[in-house]
Amino acid sequence: MNRRLLELHVENFRSLRKVSLPLRELNVLVGPNGAGKTNVLEVFRFLADVIRTDLEPALSLRGGFDEVVFWGGERTPASIRIKLKATWTTHSSATAPDEYELRIGRRSGRSLARRESFQFKRTQGRGRRITISGSEVNVVGIEKNQSEASEDVFGIRKLSSGLSTLPRLSDDKGGSEVSTVAERLASFRVFDVSVDSARAPARFPKDGREPLDDDAANLAAFLLSLRSRDEGAWDRLVEDAAEVLPQLDTIDFEYPSGPAREVVVVLRERGLRRPTQLADASYGTIRLLGLLALLYDPAPPALTCVEEIDHGLHPQALELLVQRLREASARTQFLIATHSPAMADRLEPHELVVCERRDDGSSVIPAISSQKVTDIVEASEGLPLGELWFSGALGGDL
């Protein structure tokens, strides 16, 4: 079975006043600046930070509750709500998905409170519901007829997130399922190539299995690791780079501080007497290599988010990029943000998510259903999606 995230529902998180977003393998967000594309990606970064650091530090990192809660309207909303549906655990399905919900609220006296819930399918129609409120955790068994059976109650530190603490529960209380959800969320990557960082030498990978940093700061070490781990993937990456960079012969490595300390990427190009170090390569070339590294990652996270994926790339790279995104989406879901009509031209209607923003500051995502997009494309006699979007036929004006 395909284990993936099915739906995101958000209320009062930044511009996301009330958003319900069905998620497929490849999801490309299009819309003007300020429409809320980045805020959708930020939800997943926030949840990953909750697991890594707990709830209060994740909020503090963003300036606290008042900086995260929806700013529109006359009154500050009382709570933020995030809900996910997925098919991650062993017995889940599209009709009986895993469900996780987090509510963060403001009490009188301006103190914060949180409420969390987990629900999982188990065996023979049975399930498990875990709710956390205040300093109390309730674990309830659900029988096949949906009646509640056994119940356990125990304590938890106030404001501590169940995502960060409950994986230590025993399996019979749902610890393995909570752990699966937490591991998936913690793995979520919001990827944005830092060109300056990616240019620099990287420390040599110690064990030969270098994970790719979220900003590609260790690009050289990751590519070296990929070459040693998966020769086939490495050869395909080099072929893809050469298709977009016509003068490229191959990609190689140099070791300025010795082979055990640092590594740099060098490009061997036709017509040049010496190789070009990545430090001297163009902005677009480095962005391209970072994205190809992401797409050929042999151990990707459950969900990969990419901000402004087309930034700095020549339009001829987009055809290849969309093809590789579809191939890689068999291993990791993608949530992509773009401003490029040229990229939208290369998408299928079900891959496009149009984003708009109302006058009250709230985001409308999706602004138009996938079926409606399909209907408009058919009525237009097959005009490309980017052209339809640019013309305003799909909403989400540039």
Description:
- The protein has helices spanning 37-53, 55-60, 65-68, 162-165, 175-187, 195-199, 219-229, 231-244, 283-295, 316-328, 341-344, 370-379, 385-391; strands at 5-13, 16-22, 26-30, 79-86, 98-106, 112-121, 127-133, 136-142, 148-155, 189-191, 202-203, 248-254, 262-269, 276-277, 303-306, 333-338, 352-354, 356-357, 363-364.
- The protein is of the alpha+beta class and 398 residues long.
- The protein has two domains: 4-22 and 36-187, no CATH class; 190-300, no CATH class.
- The chain has an eight-stranded antiparallel beta sheet.
- A hairpin with a 5-residue loop joins strand 18 and strand 19.
- Helix 1 (37-53) crosses helix 5 (175-187), helix 7 (219-229) crosses helix 8 and helix 9 (283-295) runs parallel beside helix 10 (316-328).
- The longest helix is centred in the N-terminal third of the chain and has 17 residues, at 37-53.
- Keywords: DNA damage, SOS response.
- This is Putative ATPase.
- It comes from Saccharomonospora marina XMU15.
